[in-house]
Design the sequence.
C-alpha cells in the first residue's frame, strides 16, 4: 500500500482539523475499523483525532474509562508497541469495558503505539479492527512497521503544535545521512554507497533509517525524493 | 532469569535495584575508571536513568543482579546522540526502529552465560517491538566477550584510552546469530520467549479465552 499521499497531507497539516482528515483517510486506506491518535502536550492539555464514533467518545469520557482501559494503563510511561492481546484484561471492570467497546464498534483486535516527546509530552496511536486472530496476524505482519512509523509522524506533527516550541534540531539530516541520501539519489545501490562512504552496509542502513524517519517517509524511495525536493541534497 | 523492567517497575524490587546500580558503580567506576557519578547509596546513576528507561536484567537465583543493560528509543533523548555524536559522524540518529543500549554491565559473580542471555533478550526486543538496530555504548574490552558469545557489534568508533576506552557500535540480530547465542547462553529460544511473555504478555492468548 502506498501511503505517501497521506504522509504528504500529514506533512502539510497545520492544525487539528487537518490531522483528523489525514487519520480518516488512512483508516480507509488500511481498511480497518478505527485509527486514533491521542496526545497530552507538555502543558498537560489533551488532544485527539480519530475515527471512534462520537457516542463511544462521549461514553468513554462519561464513564471515566481512562482509569479502566487496559490500553491506557498498559501504555502509560512505556515506549514499546503493544498488541491488545498482551494486555491485562483479567479484571471484571476491564472485561466489561471490552465488551462495551466491541458493542460500540471499536473492534476485538488492536495495536497501540505509545510515544514520548520532550518535556513530558506523550501520545498513543491505535489501530483497531474486528476480525479473527489469524486475520489480525496477517494484517500486522504486513502493516506493523509502517503503522509504527506513521504513529511517530503524527507525534512529530503534534510536537510542532506545542506552545513556545523551540525549532527542533532533531529533524536535520546529519552529514552522514546527507551522504547516504545523495549516493542513493545518484542511483548507487547500497553496497556501492556503503563502499564509497567507507562504512559497512549495516551502518549505512542505520543512516538511511534515521534519514527516512527525519524526512517523514516510510520507504527509501520516498525519503530520497523528499530530500531532493527540499533541497537537502544536491545531485 | 531475564527480567524486563521499566525504571518505575524496578521500584517494587528494591534489592534487585540496589544490586544493579551498585554493580554498575563497581564496573564503571571501580573497575573501568569511567567518569561516572556514584551517589551516597553507592549507586551509579546518570540522567538517562531518570527517563524511565527499560532495563533488561539477568536476575540470579538469589534474586540479585547478575547483569543488565539499559534501553531507550532514539526518538527521545539518548546518550548516543547527546554525548557521542562525533563518533556517529556528527548530528544525531533518530528512528523508532533504532533503540540505544547503554550501561551494559556484568556483576563480578556473573556466570559466563549471563552476557549471552542478555543478548538473547535483546533479540526478543528486536523481534517483538520492531526494533531493527541497537546503537550501543560499551566498554571497549567487552568486544572480546561479545565475540565469544557470538554477537559481535560493529564498532563505529571509540573514545578514550586503556581501560577507560569507550566504544559506540551497532547490533543487529540474525536468526543464525540468535541460535548461536542461545547455545552459548544455555537458554532455549522457547525459554527466552517465556521470560519475555511473562513481562509483556503473550499474543497467543486469545482475548476470547479471557473475555
Sequence:
Amino acid at each position: 500500500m502506498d501511503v505517501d499521499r497521506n504522509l504528504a497531507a500529514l506533512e502539510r497539516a497545520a492544525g487539528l482539523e487537518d490531522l483528523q482528515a489525514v487519520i480518516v483517510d488512512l483508516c480507509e486506506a488500511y481498511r480497518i475499523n478505527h485509527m486514533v491518535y491521542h496526545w497530552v502536550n507538555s502543558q498537560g492539555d489533551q488532544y485527539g483525532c480519530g475515527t471512534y464514533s462520537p457516542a463511544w467518545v462521549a461514553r468513554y469520557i462519561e464513564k471515566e474509562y481512562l482509569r479502566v482501559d487496559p490500553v491506557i494503563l498498559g501504555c502509560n510511561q512505556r515506549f514499546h508497541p503493544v498488541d491488545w492481546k498482551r494486555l491485562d484484561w483479567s479484571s471484571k471492570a476491564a472485561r466489561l469495558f471490552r465488551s462495551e467497546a466491541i458493542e460500540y464498534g471499536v473492534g476485538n483486535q488492536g495495536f497501540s503505539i505509545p510515544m514520548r516527546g520532550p518535556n513530558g509530552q506523550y501520545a498513543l496511536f491505535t489501530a483497531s479492527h474486528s476480525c479473527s486472530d489469524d486475520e489480525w496476524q496477517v494484517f500486522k505482519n504486513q502493516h506493523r512497521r509502517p503503522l509504527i512509523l506513521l504513529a511517530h509522524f503524527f507525534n512529530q506533527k503534534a510536537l510542532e503544535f506545542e506552545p513556545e516550541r523551540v525549532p527542533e534540531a532533531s529533524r536535520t539530516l546529519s552529514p552522514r545521512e546527507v551522504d547516504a541520501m545523495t549516493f542513493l539519489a545518484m542511483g548507487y545501490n547500497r553496497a556501492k554507497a556503503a563502499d564509497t562512504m567507507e562504512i559497512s552496509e549495516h551502518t549505512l542502513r542505520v543512516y538511511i533509517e534515521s534519514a527516512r524517519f527525519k524526512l517523514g517517509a516510510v520507504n527509501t524511495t520516498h525519503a530520497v525524493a523528499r530530500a531532493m525536493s527540499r533541497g537537502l541534497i544536491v545531485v | 532469569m531475564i527480567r524486563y523492567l521499566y525504571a518505575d517497575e524496578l521500584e517494587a524490587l528494591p534489592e534487585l535495584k540496589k544490586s544493579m546500580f551498585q554493580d554498575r558503580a563497581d564496573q564503571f567506576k571501580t573497575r573501568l575508571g569511567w567518569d561516572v557519578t556514584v551517589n551516597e547509596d553507592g549507586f551509579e546513576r546518570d540522567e538517562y536513568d531518570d527517563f524511565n528507561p527499560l532495563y533488561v536484567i539477568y536476575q540470579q537465583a538469589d534474586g540479585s543482579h547478575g547483569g543488565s543493560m539499559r534501553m531507550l528509543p532514539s526518538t527521545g533523548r539518548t546518550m548516543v546522540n547527546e554525548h557521542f555524536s562525533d563518533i556517529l559522524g556528527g548530528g544525531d540518529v533518530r528512528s523508532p526502529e533504532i533503540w540505544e543500549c547503554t550501561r551494559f554491565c556484568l556483576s563480578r559473580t556473573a556466570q559466563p552465560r549471563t552476557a549471552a542471555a542478555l543478548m538473547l533478550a535483546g533479540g526478543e526486543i528486536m523481534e517483538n517491538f520492531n526494533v531493527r538496530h541497537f546503537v550501543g555504548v560499551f566498554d571497549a574490552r567487552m568486544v572480546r566477550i561479545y565475540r565469544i558469545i557470538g554477537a559481535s557489534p560493529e564498532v563505529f568508533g571509540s573514545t578514550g584510552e586503556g581501560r577507560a576506552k569507550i566504544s559506540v557500535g551497532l547490533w543487529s540480530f540474525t536468526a543464525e546469530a540468535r541460535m548461536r547465542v542461545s547455545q552459548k547462553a544455555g537458554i532455549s529460544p522457547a525459554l527466552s520467549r517465556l521470560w519475555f511473555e511473562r513481562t509483556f504478555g503473550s499474543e497467543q492468548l486469545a482475548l476470547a479465552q479471557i473475555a
Observations:
- The interface with chain A takes residues 6, 8, 52, 54, 72-77, 88-98, 125, 128-130, 132-133, 135, 154, 156, 170, 172, 200-208, 210-211 of chain B (CB under 8 Å).
- Confidence is low (pLDDT under 50) at residues 206-211 of chain B.
- The longest strand of chain B covers residues 65-73.
